[in-house]
Amino acid sequence: MSKEFDPGIIKKLDEVVVNRIAAGEIIQRPANALKELLENSLDAKSSQIQVQVKAGGLKLLQIQDNGTGIRKDDLGIVCERFTTSKLCKFEDLTQIATFGFRGEALASISHVAHMQIQTKTKQEPCGYKASYADGKLQGAPKPCAGNQGTIITIEDLFYSMPQRRQALKSPAEEFQKLSDVVSKYAVHNPHVGFTLKKQGEAQPALKTPVNSSRKENIRIIYGSAISKELLELTYKDDTFKFQMDALLTQVNYSAKKGVMLLFINQRLVESPALKSSLDGIYSTYLPRGQHPFIYMSLQLPPQNLDVNVHPTKHEVHFLYQDEIIERIKEQVEAQLLGSNATRTFYKQLKLPGASDVLDETQASDKTRLYPKDFIRTDSQEQKLDKFLAPLKQSDSGLSSASANSTSSGSEVNASQDESFRAVAARKSKEVRLSSVLDMQQKVERSCNVRLRSILKQLVYVGCVDESRALFQHETQLYMCNTRLFSEELFYQRLVYEFQNCPEICLQPALPLQDLLVIAMDSEAAGWTPEDGDKLELASSAAAILEQKAPIMREYFSLRISQNDNGSVVLESLPALLAKHMPSITQLPLYLLRLATEVEWEQEAQCFESFCRETARYYSQLDWQDEDNGLQQKWYMEHVLFPAFKKYLLPPARLKKQIFELTNLSSLYKVFERC
């Protein structure tokens, strides 16, 4: 039988081979070694760190700090694997708050380079110098003069791994990577002074002062063009227990190559998911192929962070990653929403005699638009039927409904265009209540920029049913939940029209007690005989609304008062959109919910719950018969959707209520197959 299929003999590798393999995983290039040494210097509480380089770090890489230094007694094992002052047991990893913690950096470097350490602590009378090879101390440490701190000198990096050395970039490119590492740590640690210098050159390539600021260090390293466009963003989330500090450029700045500095629990790391999300936000504002500058520092509970998932520690995993990224995205979107103040545009002036029409030979294929990319609609166009509203029976189907819904046969006057304007012109009050201002700011912070852009440029297509409609944006066809979108719209209208709402006057006024009795009879009220007598419950609800009438009248233009006969009547409702009339059939239940669901005792909760209940009521449309259906379709196209375009600041949660059905590119592919 052939020996070709005999199993190989498994042998234990020599310890030197094992250590060199491990070193190759951790120290992949000079920049990895520098990152490890910088983190050790920061752990040692240094305020000055100087780096000297020769041939991109391959011939010489020296780092000097003024930190706490290394004790003489520890010099014997400092370069052995898994020797550290940071851990005692594996469980300590869940609370680690320092950089170098596994005891592999110095050991790995000593296996692939010639290394020397010179150090002095505050307690010892002199310094000591020691040389290392393959993780072992070469001879006894020798006394020497020196200042407090540590100098680590690495020479002939990868001398024992010629393949790795040959695969590296040129010395100039390796130096650029070293400079990139120092730059990022200098921005994140402005209290520390950093210096990077090529050996033999008089001037340093990079230098930052001690006790500077992040913004100032960004100016020194990356230039004033970036620093003057920076926005500061600080956010603390109590739900997922994280804090964010960020400096990001406004939409007036962009570059072909974006820069993102991400630190999580003080560690320089990468997060492709977070970077992709932030690039998606900026793509709404920046030209194609242009990117922002972003510095971001996240602080998470140590127990939620796994720092031991990558040999070079450039990647970490943490709990609730998707949710935290979504919260960060919302904050950045809200910050950029109003950051157009400094935006500038440039135009090319024509030389005298230049032709107005470009020569066809100068046209680039990249600017050519194919049929599948044509946008065949205009979001600014109008239709004639906008000005031809459907005729309403008895002047208004809503008025008829009101006559059938109330025992007194009262009617609602639906021709309110003139009264809207007249009442609105009389009112103009400045809102000063902090609770209302907080509600307005919350609406603005939660606005999804991408969804707002879609709504602003939508073209209405048609109504599907009572709660769904189709619209087009550029080459995409969408379907949205109009009920939930309109509910959010009316909520925001109440928040921004606080104290200044026009009125819908009810002529004649409607008896409040009768309306509440009608509400008690509806299935939605959920009344059972065990709840008590209907008339008593209706009377109790009427008393609550009468007591809170001054609040509703002052802030929301909902007037409840006593008429000449002593009866409590409803005289007006707030007018939130011109040509919009809320459903008269849902009015009794709305009043009942105001009495039972609004939190009247706390100011902020009162305004919030009142606005939500009112928005829920105003978003309900009457589709009982064919005539009402035609009126509501006209209203949806010419009142509701134009209001979405003009007013609505959609929160991120509404993204789940909009669906892309198809797009022109996909349809062309189908046609091509046919």
Write up this protein:
The protein has 674 residues and is α+β, with helices and mostly antiparallel strands. It has three domains: 15-210, 2-Layer Sandwich (Heat Shock Protein 90), CATH 3.30.565.10; 223-337, Ribosomal Protein S5, domain 2 (2-Layer Sandwich), CATH 3.30.230; 385-660, no CATH class. 36% of the residues lie in helices and 19% in strands. It has 21 helices and 23 strands. A hairpin with a 2-residue loop joins strand 18 and strand 19. Helix 14 packs across helix 19 (603-618), helix 15 crosses helix 18 (587-597) and helix 18 runs antiparallel to helix 19. It is elongated.
Proportion in β-strands:
15-25%
Q: Give the overall pLDDT as a whole number.
A: 80
Distinct helical segment count: 21
Low-confidence stretches: 86-102, 356-366, 393-426
Total tally of structural domains = 3
Helix share bin: 25-40%
* Total beta strands: 23
Approximate shape: elongated
Class by alpha and beta content? alpha+beta
Query: Termini distance?
Result: 60 Å
Biggest sheet character: 9 strands, mixed
Q: What's the Cα radius of gyration?
A: 35 Å
